[in-house]
Amino acid sequence: MLFLFFGLLIAAHGLYMVVLPSAEPDHWRAYTSDPDVVAYLADDFRASGGMEMALGALTIFVAVRWFRAGDPWAWWAFWIFPALFVWGMLTTWAVVLWLALFLAAVVTLVGTYSQFFRGPHRTRSSQD
Question: What Cα–Cα distance (Å) separates residue 35 from each residue in 29, 31, 46, 122?
Fold first, then answer.
């Protein structure tokens, strides 16, 4: 459920980035008065938002389908989230938020390890 939630957050932020240039066209006016730069920033936000929405949808799909099914590749793939959260800690001011998300992701991944990587199954006859 945590990675489904991460996917929803990513998709929601992507939607915000897509909508922002239209909903608030003067958003960047405090930084520049050059209309070409404002248009570039709007286009860049829309493009980045679209990519972020795609990442969110992919994360949701993997979480619902393969992570829940216990496919090991999905477990390994979701280690990207702790890496992204460390990047967030190193590059933004919201260290506590990124640290909390990092810890939640690591605890979830470590806690689900046995669901993905079970040891050899012992049959009833081999235990006797």
Answer: 9, 11, 16, 69
| Residue 63 dihedral angles phi and psi, to the nearest 5° | -65, -45
Say what the pLDDT of residue 29 is.
Answer: 84
pLDDT surpassing 60 at residue 120: no
- The tokens for 31 are 């930084």
Residue 55 has pLDDT above 50, yes or no: yes
CB crowding 91-110: b at 16 or more within 10 Å, else e: eeeeeeebeebbebbeebbe
For the chain, how are helix, strand and coil distributed in percent, rounded to 5? 80, 0, 20
For residue 128, the model assigns a pLDDT of 45
Domain boundaries, the chain: 1-117
Alpha-carbon gap, residue 52 to 42, rounded angstroms: 15
Between CA 68 and CA 15 the distance in angstroms is 26
Q: Match 């209309």 to its residue by tokens.
A: 35
